[in-house]
Amino acid sequence: MLWPVETRSVSPVFVGRNDELDTLNDALERAGAAEPQALLLGGEAGVGKTRLVEEFATAACRRGAVVALGGCVEIGADGLPFAPFSTALRALRAALPDELAEAAAGQEDELARLLPELGEATSGRHDEQGMARLFELTARLLERVAAERTVVVALEDLHWADASTRHLLAYLLRTLRTGRLVVLATYRSDDIHRRHPLRPLLAELDRLRTVRRLELARFTREEVGRQIAGILAAEPDPTQVDDIFERSDGNAFFVEELAVAGAEGCCTGLTDSLRDLLLVRVEALPESAQRVARIVAEGGSTVEYRLLAAVAQLAEDDLIEALRAAVGANLLTATPAGDGYRFRHSLVREAVADDLLPGERSRLNRRYAEALEADPQLVPADARVTRLASYWYQAHDPAKALPAALDASVVARRRHAYSEQLRLLERAMELWDTAPEEVRGALRPVDYTDVYPPCGCDPATTPLRYLDLMAEAAVAGRFCGERERALKITKKALRILQDEHDPQRAAWFWVQRSRLVQGLARGDGWQELGTAQDLVRGLPPSEVHADVLANAAAWSMLHEPGPEALAAAERAVEYARMVGAREIELNARVTLGTLMVDAGDVDDGIAELERVKDAALQEGVAHVAGRAYTNLPSELESVGRSREAVPIQREGIAFARRYGLLDSEAWVWGNLSESLYALGQWDEAAEAAAGALGSAASAKPRGAGALHLAHIALARGDTAEAARRLAVARAHYGTHDPMPQAQLPVARIAIGVAAEEGRILDTRAELDRALAAGFPPGTHRYGWPLLLAAATAEADARALPAAAEGRAEALDRLAEAARKLTTGAPLWQAYERWTRAELHRARGTATALVWSDVVTDFERLDRPYDLARVRRRLAQALLEEATGDDERDRATELLRLAGAVSDHLGARPLAEAVALLAQRARLTLTPRAAARRALDPAESLGLTSRERDVLRLVSVGRTNRQIAEELFISPKTASVHVSNILGKLGVAGRGEAAAVAHRLGMFPAEALDPTR
Hints:
It is a single chain. The protein is mostly helical. It contains 49 helices and ten strands. The strands form three sheets. A five-stranded parallel beta sheet has the order 2-5-6-1-7. Helix 17 runs antiparallel to helix 18, helix 33 runs parallel beside helix 35 and helix 36 runs antiparallel to helix 37. The protein is globular and about 115 Å long.
């Protein structure tokens, strides 16, 4: 346990707050049952938030919990990035060193950005996922540390929190799902004005049902009386209680100050001014103690003793005497670690700091900065650079403040604290013109810049330019979500470049502008990329040139796939290799491999994606590996190789989660959902789609997850849920950046929903919009399901009078679109035949022979639901053409198999259609032991004859070795068969497989007799 918990109050009696303390203790109890708890504690300054946290922490420690306190640190107007989390993690490491080390294993380099004691933080890659990656690893770290023991993380003074701390807290409270963890954060409610940066976060957290918010009220008169009695150790006079209650208005801290002042005889002449009240005790101190208090007030929330000694420039005995007086007056208090001092209450520190004269404030900050420059060991290493930047800035010395701000921006970038990096870079830009020319001329890009390629310049010798700062700031703004500020900086940079001949730098800024426009939903970004391409066209190969081509190829792959996109990807790879830009090369090769598969070069494209994945893993290029894990199984799925895709997808999810690649994880979850749906594992597909919604950092992968859930709901007959999920998907996708891979699946589900609701005219309208947009090369994987849905809707509506007008034209449009759409794989050849069969049905010309060919195609594929659907159609055609018992027998078995699959999947519309058709034809869909030949239900599940034999033995409890002995195969072969069976049945174990076999009536009782 972390004990003792720091105490900063005078009153020995804890007054009131019973309801709030009960709520906190209830949260502790719930956390002990592995339900993570999140609480926000608000109240005006001095109302007693800290004291309540102290009491709760003491009680939690007595109950065996580990309590880690972290406070937001204010230095001048600046907050240290992640300061409360760093402090809390440091405390956890001290209390649970082995547990924290085990929880952080393998991710020390990344987590060192928050806790430097874990090791040296690697430079790594900086991208829009960098901060999210750190947040995900932090959340998992806390969950693991709190897996077996209750942990309380208390974060105080959230109103001072830097943007990165606010973002991390929001992420934690949204994503914590497991662990014995309580996260408690406090803030001053009276400081949260309309434009305070904490206000939007509080509004967001209020919408989370998992977050409880407490607001501390002021004391009643009775509680004030009890507090005064505790302070004075005697029953107060009722008149004194009335007077203090009236003057303090029930604020606990003001009650304390007034009671102490009265006891010390300092009340005479005391004004009601807040500042005067807070300064009374300061002014009663000796002059040396007042001077030390002023120095501490300007140094930040906490000032280390050695730093204070260097700034105060007092003899050590005199300094200690002054500090003893300030501590004895309950003005200052020692830090828990005993290495520094802080004001007992921040209100007093603010009052003392506000009382400083302007020249006095800048002089104190200069002395702090000079002392820290002379001896950097005076403060902890992780705070040194940021504090130095703040001191020099508050000292109003541009010559010192500019390089200090740039140094701090580099540290912030290394910690993925991009919000703070942006703020520091904007400060550097503010200081740029006022800093002396010799200072600016000594700065070098190699020391401060990371995002802009050298382009022939030597960053070690070329002077730093204002445009370099703008480039860093634009990227930092994009990474931290401040896209408006980043776009403003980018536009200003491009205006400056209009007067300079620097096409490569201009092209680089146009690429940034393209990304920002897309991120702000103000366009698809192609116009900006086109300008960038124009600027580099004809120039010698360079890293910027390769990056422009790679971005253009990736954009084209998503928006306008085809030969031109393929050529652009090939050029990007070539240029990247020429200039040695390995990451750009690997990234462009992912695009190239994807486009190769879409163009029909399936084997070579898949092989290229596999090579890139392996290379990215070996070379540690995580973002490219994440993209390969997304595209490789997606392309396997696009050619019907779902069973190959699934293990790669599961591997990709684990990889993305390990490296905090949130959007990559979400895309892979969505792709996994698609593959599992195709394989007939719908419950798992729904879980995967929910995984996409829950893990995504941006909107589009959430849209894909919602769309997969809509698809499952539609197939299961829940049209209202499908329509709701479709609306969610559309909202996530938006209208600013249309992509065929989103538009076509959305149109397909919209057609399905409209058809289920009997709105045939709306299905035609959706189809017309899709046909007008067209099917670019490589989008046949989305085109065929859409055409099939539209053709099926027309066939189902054949008898509706409202559908008669315009039917012929609609069928002609469908037939023409099907004629033009490529196939490229057996799966889409089967879809083509199926679509044409539905068109025959819509025209009344479908025959059993037509449907028999479709069934034959799908029997070769691993698509149980699709196979069940076309078997039902074939059965219907056989019954319509039946001339004897053979056709009826075959139809019976087809319907029985289709019904078994629909029951297993929960596909209610198909199950009802099968039952209705059997009822009308007076067919009995139960297995017959006698004369009529029965097709084995294993066929509907895609089981081979050998797998059927193995499943029979699994159903009677045979082990792999016993199966091997009975079937004369090796135990290893038996194990492979069992694994295949589990995959095809969509179950997790042998018991579930036996249950499915029993439910489908696959083996009569005599077949299961172990004595046979």
